[in-house]
Design brief:
Layout (H helix, E strand, L loop, with lengths): L17 H4 L4 H19 L5 H17 L9 H21 L9 H17 L2 H16 L6 H8 L1
Length: about 160
């Protein structure tokens, strides 16, 4: 009777490591937080760029995806408002040749960024990685996530 190979797949996933079960290191969380908030400051001051807009919109979607199914904070309306503002700023570039978000439009984006900061400080790395892979998969398909539809599917 032949022996089983030593590295046969048993169909089970490898157990999560200690690093994956804990939130990311505080210094790394602060680095991501600073990058996100500086992107918003640049956009607010009219010094935005495609890179800054990309950082903000990806952070918006990642924050939404990391939220637990039964505990969405801030409310979906905040995510939809922030998404609308960010998409409009991208569309405005075509007509105004400027990457900018008005001060009065920044509140929803700031709430999302602060929620993301809290997630980085308290969410296990594995959950963030799973959400990031899901977002990357959606973006590689050439589309943005549909937050409203995703929210309705959760409910």
């Amino acid at each position: 009777m032949p022996n089983k190979p030593k590295h046969a797949k048993s169909g089970r996933r490898a157990p999560l490591t200690r690093t994956q079960l804990l939130p990311i290191a505080p210094t790394t969380a602060r680095k991501f937080s600073l990058e996100n908030h500086l992107a918003l400051v640049a956009m607010r001051n009219g010094r935005g760029s495609a890179d800054f807009a990309s950082i903000l919109i990806k952070t918006l979607y990642l924050t939404f995806l990391v939220c637990e199914r039964d505990r969405l904070y801030p409310p979906i309306e905040t995510y939809l408002e922030a998404e609308s503002i960010l998409r409009a700023s991208i569309d405005d570039l075509v007509t105004t040749d400027s990457w900018q978000i008005a001060d009065v439009q920044c509140a929803a984006i700031e709430r999302v960024l602060c929620t993301h900061d809290e997630q980085l400080a308290s969410t296990p790395l594995n959950r963030i990685e799973v959400a990031k892979r899901r977002l990357d998969h959606i973006l590689k398909a050439g589309r943005f996530p549909d937050l409203d539809a995703m929210h309705r599917m959760r409910g």
